[in-house]
Sequence to fold (927 residues):
Amino acid sequence: MLREALRHESRMAGVRVVVLTREQPASGANQALWSSTIAFTVCFAVWTIFSIIGLGVKEELGLSETEFGLLVGTPILTGSLTRVFLGVWADQFGGRRVFAGVMVLAAIATFLTSYADTYAELLTAALGVGIAGGAFSVGVTYVSKFYPKNEQGLALGIFGAGNVGSAVTKFLAPFVMVAMGWQAVAQVWAAALIVTAVLFLLLTKEDPEQLERASSGRKAASMSTQLAILKNVQVWRFALYYFFVFGAFVALALWLPRYLMGVYGLDVKTAGMLAAFYSVPASLFRIYGGKLSDRYGARSVLYVTFGISVLTTFMLSYPPTTYIIEGIRGPITFRTEMSLAPFLVTIFVLGFFMSLGKAAVFKHIPVYYPNHVGAVGGLVGMIGGLGGFVLPLAFGALLDLTGVWTSSFVLLFVLVSVALTWMHFAVRQMEHSAAGRGEQAQVPELPEMRSFGEPGIKAPPRIAGPIEDWRPEDADFWRKRGRAVARRNLWISTYCLMLSFAVWMVWSVVVARLPAIGFDFTTDQLFWLAALPGLSGATLRIFYAFLVPVFGGRLWTTLSTASLLIPAFGIGYAVQNPETPYLLFLVLALLCGLGGGNFASSMANISFFFPKSEKGNALALNAGLGNLGVSLMQFMVPVVITMGLFGALGGQAQVASDGTQFWMQNAGFVWIPLIMAGAIAAWFGMNDILSAKSSFADQAAIFGRIHTWLMCWLYTGTFGTFIGMSAGFPLLAKLVFPEVNALKYAFIGPLLGALSRAATGWISDRYGGARVSFWVFSVQIVAILGMIWFLDARSFPGFFAMVLLLFLASGVGNASTFQMVPGIMRIEVDRTEPALPEAQRRAQAERESAAVIGFTSAIAAYGAFYIPKAYGSSIELTGTANAALWGFLLFYVSCAALTRFAYSGPRGLLREAERKRAVQSPTTVPA
Fold:
């Protein structure tokens, strides 16, 4: 039985309405929902029937692209225009009887279509077939009356999944048409509609509102009263959203068979099957979109939908293009185009997110307009349906006018960009108005992702998001709450950083294989490719170091991780063709620096989460395990390039001069699913510490502190060595020891350096980073002398042992130098800002420490450029790498002297603090 839990009054758009809130679904809700969903599925299959039979008609009557688009879109026009009135009638007379009437009328029109002989007769018949599309607004009105507000999103999502009827037509109609003709398709679909109408009447009953009106003798609201609500501009904004998420879905469902046949030369059966590959997820995942809208709010879902849609439609918009570059040795030609497999993947992603958006739009309607679902749902459905009519027609006209197939996706890109922009500014205006009323105490980054302003939605507590109260130095706070949050952010950040290092250094392995698969590059050109990611990564770190306090660690980690997809895709495509110009490889090498830049922001972000006593260990784990990405890459890439890991989706193998097959594209493609997982984990699992927010100007104070520049020098001696040797050793070993397959061992050095960094952070926390750093530089001096000795002796085992010692020492030094920074900045801030209260000095020291850590990591990262380049220049000028190694030796001597004089020696800044720490021997809890 229906239980009335609450009765209250509200005013909407100047109309006084009475809202009934139910605790649970009404009796018969499940039968109504599933019967309506099945009925709508059949209606939708009939509504889109011309997407298949229209192909037969086009061939039979010789129609132009514009005529074909008009024929396919005419049923969509009728179904759209009737939605407003059918929705109101469903409110007035009951959705059950109106739904059945719509199915009967559509069945008659569909059956008569089989007897049409001319184009004019077919257009007339198509107008009648379109009545089936009007069933949507009837079903939305009917189903929503059975469910309480907190369940309407899921219920309407399930009902809306009846869009899968389009896929039913794509799957089955081509086989029926090939076997029996297009006329038989119309007759069979009409019979199915009649049977469905009869079963629907037998299995359902009138909605509870209609029953209540009948028992009380109350009349339904008039047509004019129902339509008055449409004066609200918000309704038309919802309609624009639906014009894209639903209208574009219908348009693509109709247009894709023709697109696939025209662009990729497929036959009608294959094109229909692949078009269903888009239609099925775009329908079934609407259920999940309804569930997400119930849980997190419809606006959150729409932001994600529009954002992803902007990206995918932009990718689909790019036409096949041939580039001609006027090089100094003649024209350089290369071509870019999206093959069938990437196209299908991108379309699948677009369909998935559009399905979420369809549910989100209709989640708004019963929440904002519970007594006008029919009118508002009808208008929104009508505008969306008109998109299904206008867009196929526009697609055909654009193709006729431009001759470019991808022009259809250009139109969709413009459309979704307008929808996203309008929604964003409307939400911003609402947020500002709420803030003016004192109803919004704190505005985090992207405040529109919260559910503020949507009546009836209370967002559940989220793991991710902003944290206003963060006190890691408070032992009680840290034990009860802080440690768990900090650890979660640490592990997600570490995973993303590991992927960043893998993408950053991937050229160190790829360049060594390029000559074998037909790329005619010189030794100097190969060293440039190995060195350029270090140059761009180091430069980007300068900017990335200051962005976490500006944007928030959660948002920036998500965006910076997702940006790795650009070089990953680019490498995968570029290495497949030996004709790819060297200039494009230079661009891709620079783009790999996006991974290098992420280190600065990652370290700056994690430094805010941990107390001083655990900061060294936490930073060591984040950086050390992140550095492990280099070793992971150097171990994994040589393996994956020997197998067809992605089958036909990954492209063809390249054949080396000795007949060996390689799939070099896997060096880029293998990271794509891992990067996607990392970006998702960062957004849904990380936090922002609001007290850490500051502008660039606030952080710029570090440039006036001498210790910032001293630490840049020292960290270059440790991390610059690690990352530079990681980038340069594989190619160096291949050139100076050609008889040894050094690529098999290349991963060991970065692995040792990464693990030593992660495992030795506690040593610096206990004994002091400055003391440890001095001994690190001393060991590095010994290692360089050993490398020179064994290189002259032509002993690879001895040379490799010294390289491993250098990696080991650099890993320990990476942890120890970073451990020094918070102590230095605390002393400096206390010295220069004595008038500030203790709490403010601590916060300022934390902010400056994070900025210094990020900035020093940026400067040190140039080691990934200068070490490979120094090796290349040394070999080019002298025939050996000795000159470069002697230069590195002098640099390490200067680092050891500077550490002793400025920090660990008798007059060193950290001497007293570190000796006190060593005496106290605190027990550090691993982060």
Summary: Strands lie at 4-12, 15-22, 321-327, 330-336, 465-467, 654-655, 661-662, 687-689. The mean pLDDT is 75. Residues 796-832 form the longest helix (37 residues).
